[in-house]
Specification:
Blueprint: H1 5-18, H2 24-36, H3 40-45, H4 53-67, H5 72-76, E1 78-81, E2 84-87, H6 100-109, E3 118-122, H7 128-136, E4 141-146, H8 149-161, E5 168-172, E6 186-189, H9 204-207, H10 223-232, E7 242-246, H11 252-261, E8 270-273, E9 279-285
Parallel strand pairs: 3-4, 3-6, 4-5, 6-7
Antiparallel strand pairs: 1-2, 7-9, 8-9
Helix pairs in contact: 1-2, 1-4, 2-4, 6-7
């Protein structure tokens, strides 16, 4: 069989679009570039390259996996976050563009990139938040915490990938239970916050391929916020700490109530919206 890169991409785009996959164009390109271990630009420049039969068959298998709902990130084992590609698999939540607002918030609060900060990342998953912060603040250090040993293993791989293993540590723990959080300048967290009743409403890419433990926040989506703020109040702080949390916009009022009920002043709570104008991040000084 003689088929060129151009023709194969055209036919695969058509198949994906027939399955109502909105990202058909970029998905088809990413899958082929990964299979051939070449850049996306290479495929454009060499669009008349003829594929071998083995390459063709392997590519069709990847397209079938995508049609069944498997995200490209899980197929190729990588996902971009803040302009960098992180290792991912089915043991960790895919990094989302929405979570980049956490990084932006830190950068707006700490404008001096030469500052030496101590970061704590709760529910680190792939480590994308902590690692991105350490790459932005090159004189800083940090610890990532996750209840999943498999997630911690992926975070460690990413710390090696980005050559920051000497400035980062990763610990298995249920939120802050195993660590003295008073030693940190900044705590960031994207906790599982989807209510159990809404899981079935998620797209297949998410509910079938992201770990449920990274998605579900109990029956109402609030259990992890309750745990975090309960643990935060159990230790006296000797300095100010900035806490930045991603939130589920539908639960904003309930989350604010949890914070107030744990003894924090409502006036210290700040809320930021994402690009879709949804309330996405809460930050406050402890």
């Amino acid at each position: 069989m003689n088929i060129s890169v151009q023709d194969l991409l055209a036919s695969s785009r058509k198949r994906l679009k027939l399955e109502s996959i909105d990202t058909a164009n970029i998905d088809s390109i990413l899958l082929l570039s990964n299979l051939l271990s070449v850049s996306k630009e290479y495929l454009v420049i060499n669009n008349q390259k003829i594929l071998t039969e083995s390459e063709y068959n392997d590519y069709l298998e990847l397209i079938e996996r995508r049609i069944k709902g498997e995200p490209v990130s899980k197929i190729v084992g990588r996902r971009e976050f803040y302009g960098r590609e992180f290792i991912v698999n089915r043991d960790v939540l895919d990094p989302r563009p929405d979570s980049e607002l956490i990084i932006d918030t830190v950068k707006e609060l700490f404008t001096n990139k030469e500052e030496s900060l101590n970061f704590l990342d709760l529910g680190t998953g792939s480590g994308c938040l902590l690692i991105t912060l350490l790459l932005e603040y090159k004189k800083s250090r940090g610890i990532g915490i996750d209840i999943s040993e498999k997630a911690i293993a992926i975070a460690k791989k990413n710390s090696h990938l980005f050559s920051i293993k000497n400035r980062s540590s990763f610990i298995v723990s249920d939120w802050i239970g195993a660590i003295d959080h008073s030693d940190f300048n900044v705590i960031v967290c994207n906790p599982p916050y989807i209510p159990e009743t809404e899981i079935n409403n998620l797209i297949v890419d998410v509910k079938s391929y992201d770990p449920i433990i990274s998605l579900v926040g109990g029956c109402d989506g609030l259990i992890n916020y309750k745990k975090i703020f309960s643990q935060l109040t159990k230790r006296k702080l000797n300095k100010k700490i900035i806490l930045i949390l991603e939130i589920y916009s539908s639960n904003i009022d309930a989350i604010v109530k949890i914070i107030i009920d744990e003894g924090f002043d409502k006036n210290i709570i700040k809320i930021r919206q994402d690009l879709a104008n949804k309330k996405r991040v809460i930050y406050m000084t402890l």
